[in-house]
Amino acid sequence: MAVDLSETTLSALSDTVGRPGYDRAALRPGIVHVGVGNFHRAHMAWYLDQLFEMGEGHDWGLIGAGVRAGDAAMRDKLAAQDWLTTVVELDPRGLNARVIGSMVDFVPVDPQAVIRAMADPAIRIVSLTITEGGYYVDAKTDGFDAAHPDIAHDAASPDAPKTVFGMILAALRRRRDAGAEPFTVLSCDNLPENGHVCARTVTELAQLSDPALAEWIRHAVAFPNSMVDCITPATSDRERALVRDHFGIIDAAPVVCEPFRQWVLEDNFPQGRPPLEKVGAEFVADVSRHELMKLRILNGGHAAIAYPSALLGHHFVHDAMADDQIAAWLRTLETQEIIPTLQPIAGVNYDDYLDLIVSRFANPEIGDTIPRLCLDGSNRQPKFILPTLADALRAGRAVDGLAQEVAFWCRYCEGTDEAGNTIAPNDDNSDALRGHAIASRSDPLAFLKNRAVFGTLGDNPVFQEAFARKLKLVQDQGVRAAIRAYLSGA
C-alpha cells in the first residue's frame, strides 16, 4: 500500500527504496539554490545526498529558493513532504529509487526572503538552475541585455528587485556592508562558460545602479564555470504513477532521470566547498574543454536528431534512435563534422563518449520526448550548433551536415510535419521563425537573414551555398531523402 512521503514515513518504505541514513536534523545550511526543478534535484541535490550519506559535508545543507510562480508551487509540494524527493534512475537493467534528503528548507518565494537567506554568512555558495535563457543575454549582440524591462526595474529599484540577479546583488551588498565574506555564485545551467556569463550579468546589472558594488564584485566574488549533465524528463502523471505503483510512494514531485551523471567544476570556491569529488564530481582548473565536448556532442546531438525526428512524426527519443536512418545520421554528423572541431582532453576518448551518448539517447526507460528537444530553438541553436558550424568554416572543414541540421530546423519552423500535422509553437520567437522559414520557399537564404539568430554567420558564402542546397532537398524530397544523400556523401 502506497504511503505519503514524509520524514515520519521513511521507515515504512519498501526495503527496495534507498533513504537517508544520516540525521537530517543535524544538517546545517551552506548553500542557497535558486531553481528547484527536476534537474537540480536529480543532479546537485543527489550529489549532496550521496556525500551526506558518507558522513561528509553536513554543513552544506541545501536551502531552496525561487523567483517565479512555478517555484511557489514546487515549494508547496515539497513542504508537504518535509523537503524530501524521490529520485528514480531509469536504468534499462532495472529501475531503482532513493529518497534524497539534502534539502533542509525552501524560503518563501518572496524577494526579501530570498535576499535574507543569501545574506546569511553561513551561506557560502549561491547556486542557480534558471535555464539557458534566464541570464538576460541580448540575442543580437550576445552581450548583457541592459534594456530588458526586468533589468531596468532592478537597476532603478535595487532594494526591491524582481530578478534573481537583483536579489544576489542586494544580498552581496548587505554582506559587504556588514563586513561578511561574499558567497560564491555557481551556475548549474547548460550554458557555455556559465560562470562567466553569470558574472557578466551580475556585475553589469550592478554597474547600472552602484558602480562601486560592481567593482567590489569583480574583485571579491567567484563565479566558477561548471559542466552539468543528466537527462531528466519532466514529471507528469506517468512518473507519479510509476513512483506510486512500483515503489509504493505517494510523492507530489518525484524526479526520474537516466542512471548517468557528470559534473565538472572549476575549483574556485574562496569560502570553501563540499568535497564532492568523493561522490564522483570532478574539479579541474579549466572546465572549457569538457564543457565544449558536452555542448557539442550531447546537446548538439540532441539538436541534430530533434528536427528530422519531429518532421518524421517520432515522439519519443528512443523511438527516433530505433530508426536506423536517424541513428546513422547522428553518428555520421558527429564523427565527420562535430567531433573534429574539438581539442583533445587528457584521458577522454571522443569515440567512446559518443558511444555513451548514443546509448543514453536510446534508453527506452527515460521517456524523453522529441518535442522537448525541439523547444526554444532560437536560443539553443546559437549555443549548440552554430558555434560548431563557425569553427568548421574557419578551419575550412566540410559543413554539409551542419547545414543540413539548420535546414531541418528551417523546415520544422514552417509549422507542419511531413504528414501535414500542425507543430505547436514552442519558441518565444515562433512567429518570426515561421515567417523566415516560409519565405525560404522562394528565397532559400531568407531563413539565414534572421540576424537575431545567425548574426553575420548567415553571410558566409560557403554556409549559404550548403544551406540552400540542403534546404531545397528537404523541401522537395523530404527528410529521408536528405539523410540518404548526406550518408552517401552527396
Quick one: CATH superfamily of the largest domain?
NAD(P)-binding Rossmann-like Domain
From the helix content, strand content and strand pairing, which structural class follows? alpha/beta
Our count of domains comes out at 2
Strand order of the largest sheet: 7-4-3-8-9
Domain Mannitol dehydrogenase N-terminal: 30-278
Keywords: Oxidoreductase
Protein name: Mannitol dehydrogenase family protein
Domain Mannitol dehydrogenase C-terminal: 286-473
Short description:
The protein is α/β, with parallel strands linked by helices and 490 residues long.
Structure report:
The protein is α/β, with parallel strands linked by helices. The chain has 2 domains: 3-285, Rossmann fold (3-Layer(aba) Sandwich), CATH 3.40.50; 288-488, N-(1-d-carboxylethyl)-l-norvaline Dehydrogenase, domain 2. Helix content is 47%, strand content 11%. The protein has 21 helices and 14 strands. The protein has helices at residues 38-42, 44-53, 69-79, 111-119, 149-156, 164-178, 194-209, 211-220, 237-247, 288-312, 317-321, 324-338, 350-361, 370-374, 377-384, 386-394, 400-413, 430-439, 451-454, 461-477, 479-487, and strands at 3-4, 17-18, 29-34, 61-65, 85-89, 96-100, 103-106, 125-128, 184-187, 226-229, 249-250, 255-257, 262-266, 282-284. The protein has a 5-stranded parallel sheet, with helices on both faces. A 4-stranded mixed sheet has the order 2-6-5-12, sandwiched between helices. Strands 10-13-14 form a 3-stranded mixed sheet, with helices on one face. Helix 12 (324-338) crosses helix 21. The longest helix has 25 residues, at 288-312. It starts with a strand and ends with a helix.
